[in-house]
Amino acid sequence: MRWGELPRTTRDEVRRLAQKGYPHPDPAIQRAAADWGVRVRRLLVWLFPLMAVAVLPTFLPSSWRYGASGVVDFLLGAWIRGAEILVLVGAIWFTVSVRHSERVERVNTEALLNAVHRPATEPFTAHRRLLVPGYDLGVVTWGVFAATMTLSMLDSVGEMTAEDSPAILRTLTPWAESVVITFGVSLGAIHLATAAMIPRGRGALVALDADGVTIPHLGLAFGWAEVDRVEFGHGMSLAFRLRDADGVLRRAQPKPWRRWQVRHLQGVLSIPAVSMREPISEVVAKARALHSASLAGTAAR
Asked: What is the pTM of this model?
């Protein structure tokens, strides 16, 4: 059963219940609602690279925009008008259709999780989706956006400090250009650091077994004894709340990811569901089962 196949009254009922914090009582509708939330989330991650590309012409140097041929000028104008239409349609779609999608997905996914009794404790691997646009394309598009914005700022500095400009502005030219170049280089470094944190290909995203957790793209492995609890985390993710977050994350690579995790997530190591091929409910249930089995075995000894 798919979300679009449900009667409109049923979909409205699911949204109303989700706003009150309740899932739909029918497990089949719960799964349809959770799957709909997943599809919406995967569609939303396209918005980040698309928005960067859409507004790119507004940051082109003015000499490029106004000194170009008629054909180029027409194409840039069409690009900008298309971006405005895209933003308008996206805003309407979000307001009318998907405003409550994350809440609908969360409460119904949690209901599916709670309905799982004695999930299997065999080793399990969650694989990465081949293309996650907000992560994969976002690094490229925002990098191009930052480079274009830096060129535009340098062009603006050149216009402000032309030969007919006041002497004080011409004196400040080297300083202003160095500030702009430093800004551009800093943005480039941020994009490179972000790219280093992103797993590539369709391999294992997180591997779970009786011994613990392995996250290949971070070169990180830790045992279940180092995990306080497994959570269905904020933003729809598999989250491990660590007993000694600093000790575990100190072993992770690359370092920028480690520092960001420690500073912003208060010791919770999160793997976003949007990156996974498998349903998040299945991944969280497997992780909880293996964690519980490990704790039970430790207590028995």
From this structure: 0.68
